[in-house]
Amino acid sequence: MASGNPRELDPGSQPAQIGEGILETESVSLAVGEGFPNEIPLSFTVKSRSGQGLNPQLQEAARKKLWALENDDKDVCALFKELSARLVCIQAQENCFLLSFRTVEEIWKFSTYLALGYVGCSLEHLLFTPDYWLNCALVEDTEITVTVDEDLMTTMYLGLLLQEGNFFARATFSVQVEEEEEDLKLEKNEVVHVKDVGHETKWEGTSLSTEQKGLVPVTAIEPLGHPFYQWFLKNYPVSCGISNQISEADFLQIGQGKCTATEDHKGKGWDELSFYKGDIIEVVGFLIPGLQWFIGKSTSTGTIGFVQSKCVNPEAYDSMRKSPMFFSEEEVHTFLQVPCNGNELHYSNLLHEWAKTDITSVYRLDGFEPVAMYPQTPSHAVIEGLKDDWMFEEWGKQSSNSLSSPSDSEQSSPVGESSPSILEHILLPEPDDLDDPKFFIDLNAGHMEDSDVFDPILTFLNQSSYVAHFQSLYDLSFSFLSSTFYGFSSEEELVLYLETSRNWAKRGRLDWAHIRICFLLGRLCVKRAKFSQARVYFEEAMSTMDHGFEDLPLLTSLYINLAAIYLKQKMKQKFLPMVGKGVALLACLPGHCFSSGIELEVVVYILREAITVGNTALEARACLLVIRLLLQLSKYEEVLPFAEHLQCLCASFSSQDSTAASLDFMPILTYLYDKKYLPHLALASARLYSPSSVKGSLTPIWRAGFILANSSKFFKVQERSTINTPALACLYLNYALAFSHECGAISTEKALCAILSKVYLKHGLLQGAVHYSSRAVILGKTMGEEEAFESSLSLGWMHALNCQPKKAEEIMLLLLHSLQQTDSITQDGVVHNLLAIALKEEGHVQKAAENYLWALNKARETGNRRNQAIALSNFGCLAVSHGANCLAGHYFHQAIQLYFELQSGDDTQLELVQVLLWLAQTQVARHMVEESVLFYELALAVALKTRSVMSQLQATESLCHFYSKVCPNSGACIIYHEHQVLLSQQLQDREMEGQLLQSLSQLYQSVNTARSLKQALDCTKQSLRLFIDMEETVKAAQAWLQAGRLYYQMQEDELVEMYLQAAIESALKPEELHLAMELYEEAGDVFFNGVRNRQRAVEYYRGGAVPLARKLKASQTELRLFNKLAELQIGLQNYENALEFATLAARLSVDVGDQWQEVVAFHRLATAYYLLQMYEMAEDCYLRTLSLCPPLLQGIQEAMYYSKVYYRLGDLTLHKLKDEQDATSYFLLALAAATELDDQSWQDRIQARLAQMHNASPSDKSPREWTTYRARWLSERRQDI
């Protein structure tokens, strides 16, 4: 599993994962004319956590997959596009990708994803197969680490900044200038916005602190090393400069608890706390280093007010809790609550939906499961992982130690308990049980002058402290418009009512009512973008307030809204004095309730100033506020960069303080990525999320549900009939299962077992499916009879598929016994059907037939046509298994008729496909060819309708077999092979695709036309690319060779040698010498069996194959090669060379000891002697071949051989040796052998030759004694043939 932690920001670390955009720009010159790289390599390593080093097997597997992707890099390009990078090329041999970036934003986002661990995680999705994901222990132990050159990345980043000519930089030293000069005066570390104005040594700069402009020496600045800062400062500009009320923090820790005053202080206003040296001050919220103010509460008087940070000693905190994480539990709880369509309950419900099965109501077709139809062989490691029972014993003890066990009422969403903070008592008192009060808006002229009419609203609003009912007045959604006031037709009427109420509050000196009414009027003005009028109301409220800390939400909202308007209207003189205390209210008090969108102006200003002065603690706090507000405003596009940056900051804090608890914002990021349809990023962030005991954090159940729901987006092939259960989710389903087990959530635990059983079933690991089904049975028994019955049925079906019919039978008999006291007809039929399947596998035909009949009758009783069709189909399978094809066809026909009457979903259609294929096979067995074609093609048509790739593949395979073996038709066979290739591509099964392309090439070659040969060549080249990618040496070599053959047939001789040599070179390795020898011989055969350039075969035979055969002591191969060489030289009329090779073959045949090979060798040697006119030697060799034959003729073939050799000897001795008497003897022997043949014309020819000799010779016509005996012997023993 890819590591999700960004590397620690250690300056001494080696170039590896770079931190989120923190690029060391000081090491790079700002010379404009300098050249910058355009590409950067990204390498990866597959490591084992337990072995603390490289995992060579997985590294090699990943490299092979990468090699395969080199020629088809669409998926890789899509992945890196999502990762905000551009793929230049893949370098599989170096386990490397070459990437490029065109904008600063691209390099920023990529460096962020790299730091968050997304890149390594996404590469796992790309490079590993289901076998890997099914082995949970292996997945947990594995991580992909990615490496980039930080210096090169920094150089590219700087190059892109310079290319844009517009960026932010920090002064490396102070720059002093005269008044008359155009240069900009700078202090060290001051941030400026610089632009390229064409000057060689200076750029135009604008100070963010003073807003002054001037020229800046290039040597005096360095770009901000964080791309996020560049993006943020450009996209969120402000016009009020820097307040100088925020400074750089000396330390990261924030403070909570109590501290001691170091000096006396007299408050200058009602809002400042007065205290004496040594007083204990309780921090309300947080004390953030670098801020001038924080909110404190005097422990002696109970008064709350602003306290200057300089008046307390950070080292003298009493009970101060220091931590880099400064988010209250309430904030975290709220922040981690993703919207309802992505929360815990949503995915928990989905898990239960996915676990559902129809096994209690729908019969099962005998053997009909994707696994049964297309068995796969899982890796040994996966099987061993199941034997070790990793998912419960090993991980379960470790994974949930950090997760709290909830009470029974919290099992659906377990969270930890925590004590409330001081601030929660102040801000969030317990709400009343009563509903919010409602006020009728009465605009009757008479009533408007009656103060009694306004007494209820004024009394309600004049409460001196915050009450829960005020929440609707302050929230961002303006809920008071519907929850607090009613009876008005427009907002103008409400404004008039509130204006009148304000006047009465003034008259009655009801300060709190006056303040709150002004606040509401200001909010309504902001809503209508009337900012000047809103400012008047807010200023009136602020001037009236003299004791606002009793209602902190109101005080905070007034401060921030008024400051936001000042900022928006560029009222710098009014805005800057408010910054110090406003920041303290907004940033130091957790749980601020935003009341308007314009508050974003102030939050962005705080973040901008924190970045400018380098206050990291405030930066993180401001980021959280931005995220919260943008989420409430539903601005998901804008929130993502801030959420990513905050996650990186939190990870960075945790890396610097190992004791601090890390706050994980991955669920929010996961939701946002999913909303933007970035599947790799969404899945990576979900996988990297580590559930914890933090109150409100999401559990492994949410993570498992999300991963299961979203990992299907990576797979192009989805079976519509069943839930897509990718293997990638297996580990996380096991995590959720262990968590559910720890929490005692039995229902969820059973649902997860059911899903895992489906996962392993889908991927061909029936042992795993049985394991989880068995556990589901145990859990089902604790839940009730219905759940136990369903789980037991599923387990029995798994046993049946796993070739364990005895166990399936035992389960079904127990279920039948349990059904005796019930009247469930359908369930009774389901059990009888599964029992019959088990009995059939055990060979109990009679009992199986009885149970099928019982199941069929139950289905007819309930009128369930689908179950009737399945029962009839199972009857047909039973008949086929015992050769009763006619009876089986009858049952299949009935079943198909019922299926066509059904108006149901894809599952039924897939069953129909299977039954049609079974019927077609029975028709083939009955030699009913036309009917079988009809049913095969109908099955394919139904499969196409359902868009089920696996069913299409099965039907297409059957049609290919039919047209190649049963009813040969090369045209039809080619059509279906082409469709099969397309299906294999959809399945992304490259091995299958390569084999099918080879078969298709041979089919095209057999047609032997110019067009078909070209198509055959295209198929061969496609398969060649696949085999090379998969590093299938033998198959790749054969593909090279096949291409050479095709070029020879196409008469493109200049390419023949190139492909043949490529085939041989691919196998010239010490461990592949046997393959090389075979390839040399097959390459020679291309010319040997052809009609052009036949002499080229000699080079491959003698120069390549023969030396290897001798080295490998392959005598049979060497003998075959010499025979081919002799035959070739004879055909080329190089008789002396033919004699040489024939002699070698004859000698070798004697050494081999194979009598028939010796016959062949000596016959060819005799031919060579004959052609060289060495007739005596030829006669001797011919006689040697005959002497090697058995004395008794073994058949017609041998008789023909005898006859023709003797005839050749007769011609030889008659015409060449001029020995008429010997010739006569040979002809008589040829005639004697010919009498065993039915070829009368051959006998007549021999007799005519004998008659010709007899008429032409005056000598003694009687043959020699031994010749007469031989002929008589052959004639008399003819009955032994």
Description of the molecule:
Helices cover 60% and strands 6% of the residues. It is elongated and about 160 Å long. It contains 57 helices and 16 strands. The strands form four sheets. Strands 1, 2, 3, 4 and 5 form a five-stranded antiparallel sheet that branches. A five-stranded antiparallel sheet has the order 9-8-7-6-10. A four-stranded antiparallel sheet has the order 11-12-13-14. β8 and β9 form a beta hairpin. With 1281 residues, it is α+β, with helices and mostly antiparallel strands. α10 (344-355) crosses α30 (700-710), α10 packs across α32 and α54 runs antiparallel to α55 (1220-1234).
Describe, in short, the structure shown:
With 1281 residues, this protein is of the alpha+beta class. It contains 57 helices and 16 strands.
Gap from first CA to last CA: 74 Å
Tell me, rounded to a whole number, the average pLDDT. Answer: 82
The helicity comes to 55-70%
- Tell me, what's the shape? elongated
Radius of gyration: 45 Å
SS-derived structural category: alpha+beta
Unreliable parts: 1-21, 25-33, 370-379, 387-434, 717-723, 1260-1281
Q: Which percent band covers the strand fraction?
A: 5-15%
Largest sheet: 5 strands, antiparallel
Task: Find the count of extended strands (DSSP E, 2+ residues).
Answer: 16
Number of helices: 57
